[in-house]
Amino acid sequence: MRFSLRSVFTAIALSCSVPAVASAQVVTDASQIQPGYYRVEPQHTQVSFTVLHFGFSVFEGLFSGASGVLRLDPRQPEASSLSVSVPVSSVLTTNSKLMEELKGSEWLAAGQFPKAEFVSVSVKQTGPNDALVSGNLTLHGITHPETLRVHFLGAGVNMLDKKYTVGFDATATIRRSDFGVRMFIPYVSDEVELRIAAAFERQDVAVPAGSDDR
């Protein structure tokens, strides 16, 4: 009996226990998002950061364990709002010694300032699936205005937990010196590039403003 590569790949696909997600199940037009109140889905939300390290390398790390609330109105995007926080002690890099240093008093002082928080003050739609979300970022005990460039990725029922979920990709550039974190500037860049992978699950009841309980 002779087998072709095509027949082998077909057999593998048919035997897969996880069904493929049909594209029709996820909408990619932001105007079709279900309005309402959402909570951060922390398992698939993370904040990554990038700095230039001594001019030799672009070094990356991330934060996880976010919580927060999103009020979303696709018909009136400017009426939407966001309040989110992330534990500073969740900082993760490939260097365990560096992770402990970043939590310490010379850097993020996680013991004294355990959370970084962002609270929106305005939302400006810039395209069908894009917006600028301006707000106040509190980090290291200092609050400073910052703006997120947000792109809507998709919305639909998550096939694993059956919850209606929306997902966004957001970026921002901040200066850590604005928040009193000046260690090793300029050898480690003052500018920090942030990228946020954000997932939110729709709630059946309204979530109080400022609530980030999970």
TrEMBL record:
Gene3D superfamilies: Lipid/polyisoprenoid-binding, YceI-like. It comes from the Bacteria. InterPro entries: Lipid/polyisoprenoid-bd_YceI (IPR007372), TTHA0802/YceI-like_sf (IPR036761). Residues 1-22 form the signal peptide. Residues 37-201 form the Lipid/polyisoprenoid-binding YceI-like domain. Keywords: Signal. This is Polyisoprenoid-binding protein. It comes from Parasaccharibacter apium.
